Amino acid sequence: MSSAPVRQVSSLFKIGRWSALAVGLSYGFFHARTLRNEAAARHIESEYSRKVALIEEAKKKYAESKSSNTGSSSEKFNFDDPNFDADKWAKHLESKFK
């Protein structure tokens, strides 16, 4: 059995191959870091907008409760009146304690 002679690879080819590997790894590292930073910024922005939306919703509910409380509390019931409406009074209590 005779084996074929081993062919020598050029040093320029070896250097080029290792350089391409180093450039690819460097690019991958920096690109991944950029993507990670952008994702973190998007996450922070989405959390901020979620909190702002919650605050706006709480403000609306607070305003609704203030307006419903002021409108309902101005309603006075006279229990001694012969035309006293018990159903109206019950609905008032029901809406007050919801």
From TrEMBL:
Main location: mitochondrion
Domain of life: Eukaryota
InterPro entries: ATP_synth_F0_esu_mt
Pfam families, alphabetized: ATP-synt_E (PF05680)
GO molecular function terms listed in the Swiss-Prot or TrEMBL record: proton transmembrane transporter activity
Cellular component terms per the entry's GO annotation: mitochondrial inner membrane; proton-transporting ATP synthase complex
A biological process from GO: proton motive force-driven ATP synthesis
Location of this chain's protein in the cell: Mitochondrion inner membrane
Spans annotated as Disordered: 62-81
Keywords, comma-separated and alphabetical: ATP synthesis, CF(0), Hydrogen ion transport, Ion transport, Membrane, Mitochondrion, Mitochondrion inner membrane, Transport
Biased composition (Low complexity): 65-74
Function: Subunit e, of the mitochondrial membrane ATP synthase complex (F(1)F(0) ATP synthase or Complex V) that produces ATP from ADP in the presence of a proton gradient across the membrane which is generated by electron transport complexes of the respiratory chain. ATP synthase complex consist of a soluble F(1) head domain - the catalytic core - and a membrane F(1) domain - the membrane proton channel. These two domains are linked by a central stalk rotating inside the F(1) region and a stationary peripheral stalk.
Subunit structure: F-type ATPases have 2 components, CF(1) - the catalytic core - and CF(0) - the membrane proton channel. CF(1) and CF(0) have multiple subunits.
Family statement drawn from the similarity comment of this UniProt entry: Belongs to the ATPase e subunit family.
The name this protein goes by in its record: ATP synthase F(0) complex subunit e, mitochondrial
